[in-house]
Write a structure and sequence with these properties.
By secondary structure, this protein is an alpha/beta fold. It is built from 8 helices and 14 strands. The strands form 3 sheets. Strands 2-3-4-1-5-10-6-9 form an 8-stranded mixed sheet. The N and C termini lie far apart (44 Å).
């Protein structure tokens, strides 16, 4: 049986991505295999590093080159209008159209345990990154059609942070710690609906409870949620989804329709 591994993905088009990739290359002794985009660590056979010339959002063909990958972990810059220093992570997916890669109305596969453990690892090192918010985001953008789970881990929100070697080291060491600790699963796994793009109620649950999260749909996505999309939120997770969590005050005008819809799933419902 061939060895399984995590594939960390970076892009030369992305400043933060390359800051993090260079940290890995310099500190985990990655070396390039011939004239390819693939780098292998001399010390750790459970990690491969793929450095692309293309945008991360459109890398839908990675399965071909990494058939035994456990998951794809994308190193990315984060942008926001408020320009707040932020470390984020999220699953991928488009509830409606696809202005930023992926396919319309398609979700990437989630890995709740990987996201939960990464977020917890980052928080334990918060003293090293004063001034940064640490949050999850709702599922958005591509790639969406990869056959293995996808997690974006991001540094934002301006070039000051994208080139910050200190925050890059914290991000990289956090995800490496999770990988080194091995595979696991969450006690409970939920999809989540409602609230803002940065869902602080769900963030708190990840850090303080036994729950892990698969797909997260913010309030502005709810009008796109129908039975087919809800089924996809439940199915597109490497861990079985057992619960639906709703931000009760963050469902807006879609509250009655969404509650009726999720009531038909047979899953336990938690209001926060």
């Amino acid at each position: 049986m061939e060895r399984r591994y995590y594939t960390i993905v970076a892009s030369k088009e992305d400043v933060a991505s390359m800051t993090m990739a260079n940290y890995l290359i310099n500190n985990r002794a990655f070396s390039r295999e011939t004239n390819t985009n693939f780098l292998q660590s001399k010390h750790d056979q459970s990690i491969k590093l793929h450095v692309s010339n293309r945008s991360l959002l459109y890398l839908e063909d990675l399965d071909e080159n990494y058939p035994n990958s456990i998951a794809f972990i994308f190193l990315s810059e984060h942008r926001s209008q408020k320009r707040i220093p932020t470390l984020t992570c999220h699953c991928t997916g488009n509830y409606g159209g696809n202005p930023y890669g992926g396919n319309p109305r398609e979700l990437g596969i989630a890995y709740p345990y990987l996201q939960k453990q990464y977020l917890k690892a980052i928080v334990t090192l918060r003293a090293l990154i004063p001034g940064y918010d640490v949050v999850i985001e709702s599922s958005h953008h591509g790639p969406t059609s990869l056959k293995k789970p996808v997690l974006f881990i991001e540094i934002g929100s301006t070039e000051i942070q994208w080139t910050d070697k200190n925050s890059s080291s914290v991000v990289c060491e956090s995800i490496l710690k999770v990988i080194d600790n091995g595979l696991g699963s969450c006690e409970k796994v939920a999809i989540a609906l409602g609230g803002t793009h940065y869902p602080m109620k769900f963030n708190k649950l990840l850090l303080e409870s036994e729950y892990g999260l698969a797909a997260v749909a913010a309030k502005h996505n709810l009008e796109s949620i129908d039975k087919d999309m809800l089924d996809q939120m439940i199915i597109k997770s490497i861990e079985k989804v057992t619960h639906v969590i709703v931000d009760w005050k963050g469902l807006g005008s879609e509250k009655n329709r969404i509650m009726e819809l999720i009531g038909s799933t047979g899953l336990d419902i938690l209001r926060v």
